[in-house]
Amino acid sequence: MATLEEAEFCFPKLLNSSCKKIMRPHSVSMLTYITLSSISVLTVTLNLMVIVSICHFKKLHTPTNLLLLSLAVSDFFVGLLIVFQIILIDGCWFLGDLMCSLYFLFDYVITSASVGTMVLISIDRYVAICFPFHYSTKVTVRSVFICVCVCWTCSFLYNCLILKDNFYQPGRYSSCYGECVIIINSIAGISDTIITFIIPITVIVVVYLKVFVVVMSQVRSVRPRVAAVTLQGSVKVNLKKSELKAARTLGVVVVVFLICACPYFCVTLTGGGTVFTASSVAFVMCLFYLNSCLNPLIYALFYPWFRKSVKLTFTLQILRPGSCDANIV
Asked: What membrane topology was assigned to this protein in its record (predicted)?
């Protein structure tokens, strides 16, 4: 009898008020644990490498890399938050009602800051490609730092406002002990989806489309002049490679983010005014978390300086005096 109670209830001693565990086959539970743990470790490791590289090497202290640093920091914390999602696999929360509310607050703040940083990165690339002569004067380390600080501050204040009702009396929306839920009314839910998903996605897609059009027009304008060059064949090949690389990178950035983020925000949009149980949206949340693991691969791994910095870090050469001045660009 005791074994049955322990298998079914989060708190076996509180049978009348304890939540029941989500019963799954052992193989499914193990696969879920391994998948989430792998995503968490990869997310933390990859983003930590980006953070160490940009902070350590002075040559990487540029406006664009500062945005990558902000994205890596938010994604690093997302990797840590996955640990709490692992705790919720069985549908039981053992850390208390206040920690439950804080968990959702940190989750919302970090993911919002990540989306905001992606918008800033798209704008940075737009200015760099479409207005190259004004880029160095308009986009500086100081201006980017201010934008990043504003992004994080607004994300924190905005999500505190959205979730404020859940902090007045933590746990008042829970129907049993061991449940971790929050309440977001329908108006706030729809507004949150518009502000943190629809508007950012629209900006990112429109900006990247404009960047793509500018890149294609530049390639077409260069081709007639390239035709007169003696090494016509080899130069054309290089242009085609750069053209395909630009198209592929922009496509990966937009498509991967849409694939990872759309299910999560669709659940949020259709679930306005209802109780959000962390265990019931585990799949879409994990898919959204996966984007934080892919971001360093998309934004940083394709850069040669990232591969060099990883090599210097793993070989402990960054511990040598003057290593921060190394030219890895």
From this structure: Multi-pass membrane protein
Secondary structure letter of residue 180 according to DSSP:
-
Q: How many domains is the chain built from?
A: 1
Distances (CA, A) of 200 to 18, 107, 119, 313, 317: 41, 18, 6, 34, 40
Tokens 């505190």 sit at which residue? 160
Task: Report the C-alpha gap between 300 and 328 in whole angstroms.
Answer: 14
φ and ψ at residue 20, rounded to 5 degrees: -90, 145
Question: Using the 8-state DSSP alphabet, how is residue 21 labeled?
Answer: P
pLDDT in tens, 10-63: 777 776 777 787 777 777 778 878 888 888 899 999 899 889 888 888 888 888
Q: Residue 13 falls within a domain, yes or no?
A: no
Helical spans, DSSP H, in the chain: 2-8, 26-56, 63-87, 97-130, 132-138, 141-162, 165-168, 186-193, 199-226, 232-270, 282-299, 304-314
Note whether residue 279 is domain-resident: yes
What's the token pair of residue 299? 């934004």
Range with top average pLDDT, 106-120, 211-225, 291-305, 309-323: 106-120
Which domain range does residue 263 map to? 27-220+233-325
| Residue from 172, 167, 72 nearest 117 by CA | 72
Residues with Cβ within 8 Å of 124's Cβ and at least 6 positions away in sequence, in order, are: 63, 64, 67, 139, 144
Dist. CA 81–CA 178, nearest whole Å: 18
Closest CA to 178 of 6, 19, 8, 5: 19
Handedness of CA 19, 79, 299, 206 (dihedral sign): positive
Q: Is 18 domain-assigned?
A: no
